[in-house]
Write a structure and sequence with these properties.
Layout lengths: L4 E7 L21 H19 L4 E6 L3 H14 L4 E2 L17 H6 L19 H23 L3 E7 L1 H12 L17 E6 L9 E5 L16
Parallel strand pairs: 1-4, 2-3, 2-4
Antiparallel strand pairs: 1-5, 5-6
Helix pairs in contact: 1-2, 4-5
GO molecular function: phosphatase activity
Pfam families: His_Phos_1 (PF00300)
InterPro entries: His_Pase_superF_clade-1, His_PPase_superfam, PGM_Phosphatase
Length: about 220
């Protein structure tokens, strides 16, 4: 007997970052007031689906401040307890902690070795490694959802833009090197992967939505977020 499952990849809400630092995996970066509102809207969308019959039974998060805070309204509205999963972390980035722009990078010879290979990329965690760890986390979450809720159950994983985009690109057969401006993974968005059979997981179908779209006006997005 096959067991289907859906895994929703939720990107965190807007972070308070007035200095426009590439914060990456740094601790202590909290959601802004607007980011908390974004997280609430995403949670309300998930609760609406649960009210319509979706069995959302499992919640896991990247163990960073902004993802924990994004998960808080889901815990409240759906009665779930978030489980930290290191595989959902933001991508490693050499420029973490810096206020970076293209001209600054090119002027500083210290950074040049990190700019040599955009296909890997040379400035951070390899794209293929991100796909590997995120794919494992997604498959485990699908299996856990079925274990808890049976056929058709659903899980929510709260993560970050680049890792989410990497696993989606892997699923859809898209080249991993890309222009960051082309990512369809906005703040507090849901990228949903549906597996027809978690015991023999093939390529899942993909759906995407932006519950917090009404709050996007004026938002500044940086790499490593």
């Amino acid at each position: 007997m096959s067991h289907s499952a859906t895994v929703h990849l939720l990107r965190h809400g807007e972070v308070h970052n007035p200095d426009r630092i590439v914060y990456g995996r740094l601790p202590g970066y909290h959601l802004s007031e607007r980011g908390r509102a974004m997280a609430r809207l995403a949670a309300e969308e998930l609760r609406r689906r649960a009210d319509d019959g979706a069995a959302i039974v499992h919640l896991a998060i990247s163990p960073l401040t902004r993802t924990r805070e994004t998960a808080a309204p889901i815990e409240e509205l759906l009665g779930l307890q978030a489980r930290p999963d290191e595989r959902l972390l933001e991508a490693g980035n050499h420029f973490e902690g810096l206020h970076v722009n293209r001209d600054e990078l090119l002027r500083n010879p210290r950074h040049w070795p990190r700019l040599l290979n955009p296909l890997r990329p040379s400035w951070g965690e390899p794209y293929r490694e991100q796909v590997r760890r995120m794919s494992e986390a997604v498959k485990d979450a699908a299996a856990e959802a079925v274990r808890i809720g049976g056929d058709g159950a659903e899980a929510v994983l709260v993560s970050h833009q680049l890792p989410i985009w990497m696993v989606r690109s892997g699923v859809e057969g898209r080249p991993l090197p890309h222009d960051p401006r082309t990512r369809q993974c906005n703040l507090a968005s849901l990228t949903s992967l549906r597996f027809d059979d978690v015991r023999a997981p093939g390529r899942p179908s993909v759906a995407y939505c932006e519950p917090a779209a009404e709050l996007y006006s004026g938002v500044i997005q940086l790499p490593g977020s």
